[in-house]
Specification:
With 188 residues, the protein is of the alpha/beta class. The chain has one domain: Flavodoxin domain (Rossmann fold), CATH 3.40.50. The chain has five helices and five strands. The protein has a five-stranded parallel β-sheet with strand order 2-1-3-4-5, with helices on both faces. Helix 2 crosses helix 3. The longest helix has 21 residues. It starts with a strand and ends with a helix. 46% of the residues are buried.
Length: 188
């Protein structure tokens, strides 16, 4: 089994990446393989709803998207995280999710019954909306969404501040444990 973590922050090594790594570590501690992709390393073009996504591929010439898409389809679970930018998820993560979702749905709902979870990190507010926004992707893709001890959000501004949000770190750890448990149950 494998969980693919996707960091939607345009900054490397920031609070969202720390939060995702906290969750991924909890998943690894349960014997499940993980991988983290940083969208800061790539530029994924947005979906244009051209309906050209057949044969399991998007027809836009975007090798970065193709590589990430293949990893999403191959994974048993997806963990996505975004900082809150002006009250919502970053354009980077939404461009990726829109395209992944569109291509997967047009080719037999390839994400159906995979496990998906999201994390949002904000300076002060917006985590609940962003958390819900990201979860809408999982729900329309017919994925299974585990919960945790609280909404999967953290409060931080400067790099590294998320490490001080003890409740968020416990929530992220519990999310990872719950995600691992659910993956094992689904695979039985």
């Amino acid at each position: 089994m494998k969980v693919l973590g996707i960091c939607g922050s345009p900054r490397k090594g920031g609070n969202t990446e720390f939060a995702l790594n906290t969750t991924l570590e909890a998943i690894r501690s349960e014997g499940i393989e993980t991988e983290l992709i940083r969208l800061a390393d790539s530029a994924v073009k947005p979906c244009v709803a051209c309906y050209g996504c057949t044969d399991g591929r998007c027809i836009r010439n975007d090798s970065t998207f193709d590589a990430i898409y293949e990893k999403c389809i191959a994974a048993d679970g997806l963990l996505v995280g975004s900082p809150v930018y002006f009250g919502s998820a970053t354009p980077q993560i939404m461009s990726l999710l829109d395209r992944v979702g569109f291509v997967a749905r047009r080719n037999g709902n390839l994400l159906r019954r995979k496990v998906g979870a999201s994390i949002a990190v904000a300076r002060r507010a917006g985590t609940n909306f962003t958390f819900a926004q990201l979860n809408y992707f999982f729900l329309i893709a017919e994925m299974i969404v585990p919960g945790s001890t609280y909404w999967n959000g953290g409060i931080a501004l400067e790099r590294g501040e998320i490490a001080k949000d003890e409740e968020a770190l416990q929530t992220f750890t519990n999310l990872g444990k719950n995600m691992a448990w659910l993956l094992k149950k689904v695979s039985e």
